[in-house]
Amino acid sequence: MTRARIPILMFATLLFGACSKKAAEPEPTPTTAPATTTPTGGGDPVAKAKDVFISRCVPCHGATGQGDGPASATLNPKPRKYADPEWQASVTDEYIEKIIKFGGAAVGKSPAMPNNPDLTDPAVVAALKDIIRGFNPKK
After folding, report:
1. Could you count the other beta carbons within 10 Å of the beta carbon of residue 95?
2. With contact defined as beta carbons under 8 Å apart, do 61 and 76 qualify?
3. pLDDT of 24-52, one tens digit each?
4. Residues 41 and 31: beta-carbon distance below 8 Å
5. Range 47-64 average pLDDT
6. Comparison of pLDDT for 108 and 8, the residue scoring more
7. Which of 21, 45, 60, 80 has the fewest beta carbons closer than 10 A?
């Protein structure tokens, strides 16, 4: 068999498997819950926001909001210091929520700040904004 045919055969096998009858999956039982895509924290938007902040924001902005997360060393420009009182006073809550959802490029800032299209729950976005506002030393 030639090397060129291997990818074609793999694709055909995958296609056939996808088109065939659904493979039998075990039914959920009282001891086997179905898989879920809900992030840790269940239905609590504040808990979800904390999880998102730790996993997505802390690497660059740091756990204390100083812009000194472990990934910040290689970034130019450096990540925003949430703990900067002048910055806190200069931005609106709407601006913070916009940059959380749409990323840095959406507000004329660094495109290294990614967007978060999966954050569709306004309560989670608001809770993230509250976390960021919580770094303000002058509140």
Report:
1. 12
2. no
3. 434 433 333 333 333 444 589 999 999 99
4. no
5. 97
6. 108
7. 21
How many C-beta neighbours within 10 Å does residue 22 have? 6
Q: Which residues of 57-84 are buried (b: 16+ CB within 10 A; e: fewer)?
A: beebbbeebbbebeebeeeeeebbbbbb
- Report the alpha-carbon distance of residue 133 to residue 139 in Å, rounded: 9
Residue 112 CA to residue 139 CA, distance in Å, equals 29
| Residue pair 76/109 in contact by the 8 Å Cβ criterion | no
Higher-pLDDT residue of 21 and 96 is 96
- The residues with which 29 forms a beta bridge, in sequence order, are 32
Q: Please report which confidence band the pLDDT of residue 96 belongs to, taking 50, 70 and 90 as the band edges.
A: very high
Q: Contact at 8 Å (CB) between 81 and 137?
A: no
Query: Omega into 77 within 30° of 0, i.e. cis?
Result: yes
- What is 91-124 written as a DSSP string? S-HHHHHHHHHH-GGGGTS-TTS---TT---HHH
Task: Read off φ and ψ for residue 29, nearest 5 degrees.
Answer: -120, 170
